[in-house]
Amino acid sequence: MKSKRVLSSIVVIPSVVVLVGAVLSGPAAASSPTSTTRNRPFTITSPDFSNYGPLPTSSAYAADGCGGKNLAPTLLWSDVPTGTKSFAFAIVDVSAPVAAGFHHWVVYNIPGPVRELAGHGQNPYSEGTNDFHHVGYGGPCPPPGGEIHDYVFQLYALDVSDIAGQHLTYQELMQKIARDVVGVAVTIGTYVNNAPA
Questions:
Q1: Could you list the residue range(s) of the whole structural domain that residue 179 is in?
Q2: Does the residue 47 lie in any domain?
Q3: How far is CA 87 from the centre of its chain?
Q4: Structural domain contains residue 19
Q5: In the 3-class helix/strand/coil scheme, how is the chain assigned residue by residue?
Q6: 173 contacts 106 by C-beta, under 8 angstroms
Q7: Residue 41 CB burial class (10 angstroms; 0-12, 13-18, ≥19)
Q8: What is the pLDDT of residues 80-104, one digit of tens each?
């Protein structure tokens, strides 16, 4: 019998709750987030990895023995909810043994007409403080030993054009956008550190 891995993570805040639930068995099959009238799901993809597929080695953190180049994957989205004025984005390692996961990238004030977040260059949008305590992208860096970690890529469509504040943390961003989310797109990548534990 094939091994089965279950992921279940609450990925948003008061009044807009998205339950991302998935069961992986052999080749991964994705499921859509639960939605409400003000929380319409739309689509996010990447040319660099498939949903529930492994993230490229180049995306891993470039320090602490993680073996990567710290190059974020490129992200594309479509079917955006009507009335979207801007987007906010985050990557959360929901497998990390810390409350609310480990936050690798926080981006906001992405204009409503934009449909791409370019991973390998500087983005002209507001970037927040990740849980490495750096501004910008910090790639996957799970502990050695071969345990699979799940990285939830969360894109929020907002009905406001601007989120105030510089270098917001994930928690600060979630508090600010709690009443402004009109849609959520989610994709999940995985990463494994196969170095001996």
A1: 36-192
A2: yes
A3: 13
A4: no
A5: CCCEEEEEEECCECCECCEEEEEEECCCCCCCCCCECCEEECEEECCCCCCCEECCHHHCCCCCCCCCCCCCCCEEEECCCCCCCEEEEEEEECCCCCCCCEEEEEEEEEECCCCEECCCCCCCCEECECCCCCECCCCCCCCCCCCEEEEEEEEEEECCCCCCCCCCCHHHHHHHHCCCEEEEEEEEEEEECCCCC
A6: yes
A7: middle
A8: 999 999 999 999 999 999 988 999 9
Q: Is the pTM of this model over 0.85?
A: no
Dist. CA 15–CA 9, nearest whole Å = 16
Average pLDDT over residues 92-120: 94
The pLDDT value recorded for residue 38 is 64
Q: How far apart are the first and last CA of the chain?
A: 27
Phi, psi of 27 (to 5 degrees): -60, 130
Number of domains in the chain: 1
177: left (phi over 0), alpha (psi -120 to 50) or beta: alpha
pLDDT one-digit tens code per residue, 126-168: 999 999 999 999 999 998 888 899 999 999 999 999 999 999 9
The mean pLDDT of the chain is 83
In sequence order, the 6+-apart residues with CB closer than 8 A to the CB of 54 are 189, 190, 191, 192
Domain annotation covers residue 115: yes
Query: Residue 132: what pLDDT?
Result: 95
**Domain at 176, CATH number:** 3.90.280.10
